[in-house]
Amino acid sequence: MGKYKIFVDGSSGTTGLRIADRLAERDEFEILKISEADRKDVRARAAVINESDLSFLCLPDDAAREVVPLLRDDVRILDTSTAHRTAPGWVYGLPELHGTREALKTATRVAVPGCHATGFIAPVAPLVELGIIPKAAHLNVTSLTGYSGGGKKMIAEYEAERTNKALNAPRPYGLALHHKHLPEMAAVTGLDTAPNFVPVVADYYAGMETMIPLDVTALGVSAPQVASALAEYYDGQPMVKVHPLCEGTDGGFLAANKLAGKDTLEIYCLANPDGTRMQLISLFDNLGKGSSGAAVQCMNLMLGLEETKGLAR
Fold this sequence. Notes:
Blueprint: E1 4-9, H1 14-24, E2 29-31, H2 42-51, E3 54-57, H3 61-67, E4 76-79, E5 91-92, H4 100-106, E6 109-111, H5 115-129, E7 140-146, H6 151-159, E8 171-172, H7 182-189, E9 196-202, E10 208-214, H8 216-219, H9 223-233, E11 240-242, E12 265-271, E13 278-284, H10 288-302
Parallel strand pairs: 1-2, 1-3, 3-4, 4-6, 5-6, 7-9, 11-12
Antiparallel strand pairs: 7-10, 8-9, 10-13, 12-13
Helix pairs in contact: 1-10, 5-7
């Protein structure tokens, strides 16, 4: 068989650049190109996508929505924007969730999960599926990210000569509590209500730490039950690891950049001494399992390639 024809639409952004770099290291792909003049012409872009075996949409939401109706139904699409994450007919690209890996193998429309959403969904969706967290639960989540998650403009701001002292400290944002990841957080976990979610950006390049407190007493379960349920759910998954209850931290600390450069995700199950309160923490790279790594993992499955090929573990 010849090489797969791959196109990255929007390859100048942070996610697109990272995906393009990953693809360039692999010899089973022919990377399709588009002229600078045609980059802003939606029909010209659609024509290139329709020549591909698989294309990545690394675009703003509106641009992704604009091009999709112009595409052949059989062209495999991986959309890294927010545009189609809860849209009918699109597979949500978190292979580790039950049923998703098989769906990805035949899918032509796949939405790559959001970074903060991945950190929330990975521990919560299994617990909702298993009935440990009721669908009516109102959860809280705080998610800390490196500044690379803000894209080229934010990266430049943090890496330029500092004139703004606010950049030296962690900064909560999305304070209107209307973050764009909320719809997928509710839809994919099965919760009736999206969580009360506060993201925080801090002065380091990459890495994400998503923290979800659980009142296990109110849920009528124990901390060991929760930890065991997650460990069993993700048993054998190559890109997700669940640490045993109250284990895995670095002397009681957990740095958000610990998995920077990796495409894996680790879940920490922490509890107070009597086991009445828990903190679930997802640790991963916002540019890895939170974006380009997740996209490549999905691509491998969609093309029938080894799932972890080209991924850093």
